[in-house]
Write a structure and sequence with these properties.
The chain folds into three domains: 190 residues, no CATH class; 157 residues, no CATH class; 95 residues, no CATH class. 41% of the residues lie in helices and 13% in strands. The protein has 17 helices and twelve strands. Strands 2, 6, 7, 8, 9 and 10 form a six-stranded antiparallel β-sheet that branches. The chain has a two-stranded antiparallel ribbon with strand order 1-3. The radius of gyration is 23 Å and the shape is globular. It binds adenosine monophosphate and magnesium ion. The site of magnesium ion has 3 residues, from loops.
């Protein structure tokens, strides 16, 4: 049986009260809170890779207790559950204390790889941070979080992981479109796994309250356990920490851009201090390459968190973190500026690296190369074209013996509809220029094709695929959840017989709720 510890509780101040009434919690980084039991927990799915990562054995997995713990009905030895206290900027405005309103960390486990991982239940009941909400999560959003955490991991994107998906047997009431039609939906709990779930918002809350002592305790805890290579706490170390978070965040967002992932709610309470993708809510994947697209209907007017805006929101969020760390940086503006510069530098370099690789180029060598990439973006955005299919298809074009003289089938197949001739002509011109450029790589085309297939996924968790799995699960059939998890394990491989999972969005899914547009309701 696994044995749990809780370094965060052991080394930082917590809330002296232990009731779950909503309240402002001052001078504390967390509140102890017990998960609220559920009626009939049932294991819908689990991720074998996370089981292995944690070193959980077969016997634990098969035990009746496993699902009870993952449903919040039982605890393993050493577990001391808590909810974290944090704040955040939501949609550009300071929102004050938020905190884990429905996420409860059970404890941390020393994994065979030497890393300690926290296990956190999302949807495990009310906490002092629940405000007026119920502390629960619905099955549809839990399926989405479970599948996407793992899909992202297998794509190589930094992310929190998901150990399990448990249906609670209880109903949860949600007004999915905030239009006055609340309905009962099945409840669920995802067990998330990460070295830490600390967010920018944990730091922001301390500073917003003028509690520099608490801020320092939090920063020192974070340095000691997650950034030990930066050295002992000092002004210079805090500055290095800030730059490193900026770097990781920039890398993360460049990676999102490269795979077409749109987070949907990049509030600072959803920004991991470790540079992980965290809090899968109304996220989505680009079908057609539209920089203006966001899956989040709650953000439909402003579209603050649209695909094309993620990079600058990342920078804005890094600036918020700089403001939060301001007292530790001894109010030296240059140190914040360095963090912001680090973000911009890293982001530019990573975008260049990732998109050149997607195009089979070892690097962007000159202005002409940069223009080639920019022309590609402009062309893709000018007419509805499936991003994933387009990039994946290029490995078939690169091996052609001559530059294409007509638009190849694989590229045509990526269109949603019939583009005007002028657009086709422009695409052909771009493809020919790109094909010529690939010849200068000095690498056999077959090798280039293999390298490109290793960075251009064939399978991503398209919104409509996830929604089909959700609909089936609502009808008692979990098999589509399992099937999707299986496919998303090997996103870069051809998987004969599973081509349907790589298909572009069907017309009927274009604007259907859930299939392409999602609210924050979860
Ligand atoms: P999110 O938009 O999911 O990142 O959540 C923002 C804040 O609302 C966080 O503090 C969450 O813990 C809280 N929250 C969201 N949904 C619920 C819920 N059903 N019950 C309690 N708190 C919630
Ligand atoms: Mg959140």
């Amino acid at each position: 049986m696994p044995h749990f510890t809780s370094r965060f509780l052991d080394s930082t101040p917590g809330d002296p009260l232990q009731d779950t009434r909503s309240r402002q919690v001052l001078g504390a980084l967390w509140s102890k809170v017990q998960p609220t039991p559920v009626s009939a927990p049932r294991l819908v799915a689990y991720a074998q890779e996370v089981v292995d990562l944690l070193g959980l054995d077969e016997q634990t997995l098969r035990s009746a207790e496993f699902v009870q713990v993952l449903g919040g009905n039982a605890l393993w030895p050493g577990m001391v559950p808590y909810a974290a206290n944090y704040g955040g900027h939501q949609f550009g405005n300071w929102a004050g204390q938020l905190g884990d309103g429905r996420a409860i960390v059970l404890g941390e486990l020393l994994a065979p790889n030497g890393t300690r991982y926290e296990l956190q239940l999302k949807g495990a009941g009310r906490t002092p941070y629940s405000r007026r909400a119920d502390g629960r999560a619905v099955l549809r959003s839990s399926i989405r979080e479970f599948l996407c955490s793992e899909a992202m991991h297998h794509l190589g994107v930094s992310t929190t992981r998901a150990l399990s998906l448990v249906a609670t047997g209880d109903e949860v009431i949600r007004d999915m479109f905030y239009d006055g039609h609340p309905e009962a939906e099945p409840g669920a709990i995802v067990c998330r796994v990460a070295p830490s779930f600390l967010r920018f918002g944990n730091f922001e809350l301390c500073t917003s309250r003028g509690d520099v002592g608490l801020l320092k305790t939090l920063a020192d805890y974070t340095l000691k356990h997650f950034y030990p290579e930066l050295g002992e706490p000092s002004k210079a170390t805090y500055a290095a920490f800030y730059r490193e978070v900026a770097r990781r965040t920039a890398r993360l967002i460049a990676h999102w851009q490269a795979v077409g992932f749109v987070h949907g709610v990049m509030n600072t309470d959803n920004m991991s201090i470790l540079g992980l993708t965290i809090d899968y809510g109304p996220y989505g994947w680009l079908d057609d390459f539209n920089p203006g697209w966001t899956p989040n209907t709650t953000d439909a007017e402003q579209r603050r968190y649209r695909y094309g805006n993620q990079p600058s929101i990342g920078l804005w969020n890094i600036e918020r973190l700089g403001v939060a760390l301001w007292p530790l940086l001894e109010e030296e503006e240059a140190l914040v500026d360095e963090g912001l510069a680090e973000y911009q530098r890293t982001f530019a370099a990573e975008m260049s690296r990732r998109f050149s690789a997607k195009l089979g180029l070892s690097s962007l060598e000159d202005e002409a190369d940069v223009a080639l990439v920019n022309d590609c973006f402009a062309w893709l955005a000018a007419y509805e074209t499936d991003m994933t299919l387009f990039f994946r298809g290029l490995s078939q074009v690169v091996t052609a013996p001559t530059a294409p003289r007509e638009l190849p089938r694989v590229v045509r197949d990526a269109f949603y509809g019939e583009p005007p001739e002028a657009h086709v002509a422009k695409g052909l011109e771009w493809l020919a220029a790109w094909w010529q450029r690939t010849r200068r790589e000095g690498v056999p085309p077959e090798t280039l094709a293999r390298q490109m297939d290793a960075v251009n996924p064939k399978y991503v968790l398209r919104n409509w695929l996830a929604q089909e799995a959700i609909d089936a699960a609502h009808n008692g059939d979990d098999s589509k959840v399992h099937a999707l998890l299986e496919v998303m394990r090997r996103p870069f491989d051809e998987q004969p017989g599973r081509e349907a999972y790589a298909a572009k969005r069907p017309e009927w899914a274009r604007s259907k709720p859930g299939f392409s547009a999602l609210s924050c309701s979860s």
